[in-house]
Design goal:
By secondary structure, the protein is mainly α. The chain has a domain of 73 residues. Helix content is 66%, strand content 0%. It is built from six helices and no strands. The longest helix has 37 residues. It is flat. The N terminus is likely disordered.
Length: 175
C-alpha cells in the first residue's frame, strides 16, 4: 500500500502531503463531521472513506475515537441479536415441536456454533446479552426516549441552555 491512497490524484498538486487542496478540504470536513455524527450507518459511511495514513496526528485521534464509538454501537447491536437468539431458542424450537418453556436452553450452543466460540465464551456472551436486555434494557429504552425528546426540542427551537435544563429535569425524574 502506498503512503498516500490519493497519490494518483496529486500529480502536480504542489501542496503539503501531495493531496489536492479540494481533496484536503473534503477529508478535513469528513474528519470534522466525525464528532457530531451519531454511531450507526452514517458514521460507518464516514469511517469507510477515511484513510488514516493521510491524516494528521490530531485527525487520527478523532478517527480513533469515532471508530471506538462505532465499534461500541456494533457490539450493542450484536448483543441485541444474541439476546433475540437466546429468547427464541434454537431455530425457533417451539415451531419444531419442542417445549416453548425450554426454547432458550440450547441458545448458547447455537451462539457457539454460529460465532465459532468456546462454550464458556458463548455462555458469557448469552449471559451478558440477557443481563443487558433485562436489567439495563429499561434504562436504555428511557435514554432513547429522552434522546428523541431532546432532538424534538432542538427542532422546535430550544437552545443549548434550554436543553441543559431539560436534561437536568429528566435526570431528576429518573431517580
Amino acid at each position: 500500500m502506498s503512503a498516500c491512497r490519493y497519490e494518483h490524484l496529486s500529480e502536480g498538486a504542489g501542496n503539503l502531503g501531495g493531496m489536492p487542496v479540494e481533496l484536503q478540504e473534503r477529508v478535513g470536513a469528513a474528519v470534522a463531521a466525525l464528532e457530531r455524527t451519531p454511531a450507526g450507518p452514517a458514521l460507518a459511511g464516514l469511517l469507510a472513506g477515511l484513510d488514516p495514513t493521510v491524516l494528521s496526528g490530531a485527525e487520527c485521534v478523532l478517527l480513533m475515537r469515532a471508530r471506538y464509538r462505532q465499534s461500541s454501537h456494533e457490539r450493542g447491536q450484536l448483543l441485541a441479536v444474541v439476546d433475540e437468539v437466546r429468547r427464541r431458542g434454537v431455530a425457533d424450537a417451539a415451531g419444531f415441536g419442542a417445549d416453548p418453556d425450554q426454547a432458550g436452553e440450547f441458545a448458547a450452543d447455537e451462539v457457539r456454533a454460529a460465532l465459532v466460540l468456546t462454550r464458556r465464551a458463548a455462555e458469557d456472551l448469552c449471559h451478558l446479552a440477557e443481563d443487558l436486555a433485562h436489567r439495563v434494557g429499561a434504562r436504555i429504552d428511557q435514554l432513547s426516549a429522552n434522546r428523541a425528546l431532546a432532538e424534538e426540542a432542538v427542532r422546535a427551537g430550544f437552545g443549548e441552555r434550554d436543553l441543559s435544563a431539560i436534561a437536568a429535569l429528566l435526570r431528576a425524574s429518573a431517580e
